[in-house]
Write a structure and sequence with these properties.
184 residues, minor pseudopilin epsh fold, five-stranded antiparallel beta sheet, four-stranded antiparallel beta sheet
Amino acid sequence: MPELMIVLLIISILVVLALPQIISSRRLFRFSGLQRQVATSLTEARQEAMSQKTPITFRYDDAAKKIMIHGGKFGASGDARNRTVELTGTGLEFDEIAYGRPSGALTSALSDTSNITPLVSGAVAITFQSDGSVIDAANNPQNNAVFFYNVNYPSDMAFAISVLGAGGRVKIWRYNKNIQLYVE
């Protein structure tokens, strides 16, 4: 019986010491799921634009923490056929997800020259053309980037996803707090 009590005591001490690491890993895993979901949605919008040969729009609504893909066979914005992704469905709480850069992060452009796409009426819209590119009103390639971070762990879990206008290439960036830059 004493040996069993000692074993249980050792196990309980190990669990107490490991629990904060386990919780932190779960949060990091859930937030990396958010990163994958945003990147996948951008890539899907681009691929759909090329396969349908029609403009397709990726739209992030900051107030609802929701992504919507519309255009082509997905219908106009608000149509029941739109592809919708709830970002809080990744296991994160609504108020944990923030659009933008964490406090203290540099506001310069990413090394691919893309910079944060500002929210317009609380949303970001990126429209892919039938060739996969993203252009502005004057038909010039337009680089875009969406930035997110976890409010509870801003510097540890910040990321950006850029879209290079000419080719529509989607790139994922993680914030490195040691050098205070986003790295690919």
